[in-house]
Amino acid sequence: MRKYTKEHEWIDVAGDEATIGITSFAQNALGDVVYVELPAAGKQLNAKQEAAVVESVKAASDVYAPVAGTVTATNEKLSADPSLVNRAAEGEGWFFKLKLANLSDLDGLMDEDSYKAHVGELG
Amino acid sequence: MSDIDTPEGLKRTPLTARHHSLGAKMAAFAGYDMPIQYENGIMAEHLHTRSKAGLFDVSHMGQAYLMGHGADEALEALVPGDIKGLAIGQMRYTLLLNKDGGVIDDLMVLKLAPDLLFLVVNAGRKDVDYALLRRSLPRDITLEVLQERALVALQGPSAVKVLGAIHPQAAKLRFMTGYKSEDGMIITRSGYTGEDGFEISLPVDEDMALITQITQHADVQWIGLGARDSLRLEAGLCLYGHELDETISPIEADLKWVIPKARRESLNFPGGARIGRELKEGTSRIRVGIKPQGRAPAREQTVIQHQGRAVGVITSGGYGPSVAGPVAIGYIEPALAAAGTVVELLIRNQPHPAEIVKLPFVPHTYIK
Q1: Residue B292 contacts A where some CB pair is shorter than 8 Å
Q2: CB contact under 8 A, A57 and B348
Q3: Cβ contact B96:B104 at 8 Å
Q4: What ipTM was assigned to the predicted interfaces of this complex?
Q5: Would A52 disulfide with which of A63, B194, B319, B352, CB 3.0-4.6 Å?
Q6: Measured between alpha carbons, how far is B72 from B75 in angstroms, rounded to an integer?
Q7: Per-residue pLDDT for B2 more than 60?
């Protein structure tokens, strides 16, 4: 099940573990990604807390935790090849994994149709 | 996007409609609706400029004539550079200084004829500069602001081939020289990317055929302000509002070279007292290049530390596509300004090691 935030993160949930990245729309808006700073494994994050930083040639942007949880893994491939975010934002270019603190946090997130409508409004 | 997409309150250049039709990402810059990047993106545009040629719309910058007998002498009184000594066709980078030696603006001055100078000033400083010039110049010297001209920069190793095919005389220019062509173009061999290239001031008419001719060449792509900034940063060049402002002196900005030897002694320009003192006693800060050792870019306002103590600040920082890593320019205590000094950059409260380096990051390829 994939859900989205207004801030253009996506979250895939399997059981109580979630994988998080930024959307294709977000990577396109950012342009060439040159650096990604990821949270340390074991770090506890609150929902909407700054979790990672993604930097393009021009600027740095925060990536937020869509839901509360503990970081279980980060995508080390992004350290060596940040442009993976541009090439595969919603797949291989994932940022980090979380063990969810509250499954109910997911209720407030958008499904694909809602997110598409949200992006359409920004269009 | 269409012509009507310029947000209210923003000015347009004579080329804004072209940028919109090319699908550029536009943003407000110094009150103008300007292209930040085109479809290929900043990285590709930057690298294209260094390998072939990029065309930049810089029509937001101010263009003006300074006219009248003794125009050179009158301008020389306001800047630390040698203006009287300019030969016809010679161009100079110089600074308008306030009475305290701070930089009001950096500008280009081209001598077109004995009593005619052509000025190019920063977009964001036009009003301040023109007011200063009008207030300070003798009555018989006229400032004529050129509203009806576009300004483009053609930069990169292919620039000479592209422009030379249209204006053969341009290919014979040396760096920092220029002329006015019979068809009213003011062409100089100059730019702000560190590459060989030209800036071309052209009268605005409906088709601006020269622009079309240039862009038809296979080596030429439009380049936005995003890559313009990363190119000038790698070239180690100052950007007003970042490396230069009204508190910073040319000595602090490591621009001593803009002050010829005779004027370092006469000090007969605004702020001369401070410049004289700084030449003798040094300054408390100096502009340097900074190379972060990791991959994290250090942005403007990042604090520079040395052994846990704040010793400076970054004024421009980002990713250098030709360097293939982060690059920055900033101000630091002169005792720590030697190339090779290792410092720490406080990025999101974490110290990141960096090294002071000699500018530029990418060698200039000017045809001198």
Answers
A1: no
A2: no
A3: yes
A4: 0.91
A5: A63
A6: 5
A7: no
B196 CB neighbour count, 10 Å cutoff: 22
pLDDT digits (tens, 9 = 90+) for B342-353: 999 999 999 999
Contact B163, B69 (CB under 8 A): no
Q: Which of B76, B367, B344, B356 is nearest to B236 (CA)?
A: B356
Chain A residues inside the 8 Å CB shell of B42: 31-32, 56-58
Are B176 and B188 spatial neighbours (Cβ–Cβ below 8 Å)?
yes
What is the Cα gyration radius of chain B? Answer: 21
Contacts of A79 in chain B (CB under 8 A): 295
Contact present, B53 and B37 (Cβ < 8 Å): no
Contact state of A57 with B326 under an 8 Å Cβ cutoff? no
Say if residues B175 and B366 touch (Cβ distance below 8 Å): yes
Cα separation, B85 vs B66, whole angstroms: 16
What is the rounded CA–CA span in Å between residue B68 and residue B117? 9
Amino acid at residue number B70:
G
Residue B327 bridge partners (DSSP) = B318
pLDDT bucket at B1, cuts 50 / 70 / 90: very low
Residue B179: both structure tokens together:
């002329």
How many A/B residue pairs have CB atoms within 8 Å?
45
